[in-house]
Write a sequence for this structure.
């Protein structure tokens, strides 16, 4: 299992870099070419949400991204350190029980539509969004 970690300051310009890095690593880990746009868009949405939260609550704190190749899956976790609203402070959010308007405010609905699997872990100390896509274990997409 290979892991790449990236941290960046809460500036919108850094979101583009995060998308490019995620797409390059997804390609290397064997994510199908047809899914790379979904990876790029989902990572961009999660990072943009984190940047917005940090700019409002903790602009000096970095945003963290972890990208890993784990047993045939390409997994990306975007973590912020901005305090979550009380309604968000459950252990793990069940995306099916939240209203569309609530989810759209955080971009999570968009992410859920782009990633194969999504989990959201809100807490008073920040939020982690974990998303994943299928990847070939040997790092080469099927032809």
């Amino acid at each position: 299992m290979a892991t790449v970690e990236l941290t960046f300051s809460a500036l919108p310009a850094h979101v583009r870099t995060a998308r490019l890095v995620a797409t390059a690593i997804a390609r290397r880990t064997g994510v199908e070419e047809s899914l790379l746009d979904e990876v790029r868009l989902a990572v961009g949405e999660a990072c943009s949400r984190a940047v917005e939260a940090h700019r409002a609550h903790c602009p000096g704190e970095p945003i963290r991204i972890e990208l890993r190749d784990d047993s045939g899956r390409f997994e990306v976790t975007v973590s912020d350190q901005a305090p979550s609203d009380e309604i968000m402070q459950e252990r793990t959010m069940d995306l099916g029980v939240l209203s569309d308007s609530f989810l759209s405010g955080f971009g999570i609905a968009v992410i859920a539509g782009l990633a194969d699997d999504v989990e959201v872990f809100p807490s008073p100390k920040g939020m982690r969004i974990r998303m994943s896509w299928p990847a070939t274990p040997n790092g080469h997409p099927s032809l």
Summary: The domain at 2-134 is CATH 3.30.565.10 (Heat Shock Protein 90). Strands lie at 2-8, 63-70, 73-79, 117-123, 126-134.
